[in-house]
Amino acid sequence: MTEPQQPRAQRIRLGAELRRLRTLGGLSGREIGRRTGISQANVSRIENGQIVPSLPQVRAWATAAQAPEAAGQLAAMTESALNEVTTFRDRLRDGLTPVQQDVRELESTTTTLRNFQPGIVPGLLQTADYARHVLGLAHAAPPGDIAPAVAARLERQAIIADPTRRFEWIMTESALRWAPVSAEPGMLAAQLDRLMVIAGLANAAVGVIPLGAPMKAIPRCGFVIYDERHPGYQPFVIVETPHAAVYVSDPDDVDVYREQLAALRQSALFGSDALAAIRAASDAL
Fold it and tell me: Quick one: average pLDDT of 127-137?
């Protein structure tokens, strides 16, 4: 399995600069790790732009490489890498299918995944027809790319069957009822049937925020928290805006989204109540 594709440009620049300083300082990866307290595996991931070091770690790196004057620049580069923006123009340059493959790799290193969606059913829960309509609305999606992208999205769903993973999906009642104008009859009914199946799994929590529920947070946008992850991989959040995906990995900012989800959770129905809400949406079709 390839290494997950995380936020690219800023991380890659930071990793390249850290590698350059280490090399100029005549240090091996093992030695820089010993001096900074970073495992050798994570030294490699940092230099390849796969994870972002903490500010204390980059300062220790500059000291170990005998380049204390670089600490300020490294700190600024680290802060940029912790919250990076990737425009959809760049993200979709190679089409929709590679994006699905990148997301699958990210999910493969995550044991607890949490997702809030105000307007649509989350990707891991989508049926093929529903996914085809959603991906058809993507920015500049080549028509011939839709079918393989749908297939790649459905392949991602195999992870739900892994009992060692934990999932939490929270969506609004509006998301249950959303359907594109061109949708075939029965598309949304099939989607809601799938939601009811997923809601019954032991490792999945499906929450529905009903219309009229008292809100303790503003549901500004959808976001995914890649929370508990494999050793060496940091928790982070992906927030999708109309023009770009924002990758958030600063620990304090990740906590903001955990707190947001906790507040949204208080307005949501779970268990049999959530199933009843989904069934009511299906009956209303």
Answer: 90
Going by their DSSP bridges, the two strands 112-117 and 166-172 should be labelled as parallel
Contact 285, 189 (CB under 8 A): yes
Instruction: For residues 167 and 68, state if they share a domain.
Output: no
Structure letter (DSSP) for residue 5 = -
Tell me the average pLDDT of the chain.
89
Q: 0.70 exceeded by the pTM?
A: yes
65 and 109 housed in the same domain: no
For residue 243, is it left (φ>0), alpha (ψ between -120 and 50) or beta? alpha
155 and 46 in a common domain:
no
| Rounded Cα–Cα distance for residues 110 and 55 (Å) | 24
| Model confidence pLDDT, tens digit, residues 25-38 | 999 999 999 999 99
Cβ-Cβ contacts under 8 Å for 161 (sequence gap 6 or more) = none
Q: Are 40 and 145 in a shared domain?
A: no
Tokens of 15: 């990793």
Same domain, 141 and 237: yes
Cα 235-261-153 angle, rounded to 5 deg = 65
Q: Which of 82, 112, 131 is the last residue of a domain?
A: 82
Residue that finishes a domain, picked among 82, 101, 120: 82
What is the tens place of the pLDDT at every residue in 83-129? Answer: 888 777 777 777 888 888 889 988 998 999 999 999 999 999 999 99
What are the tokens at 237?
């959040």
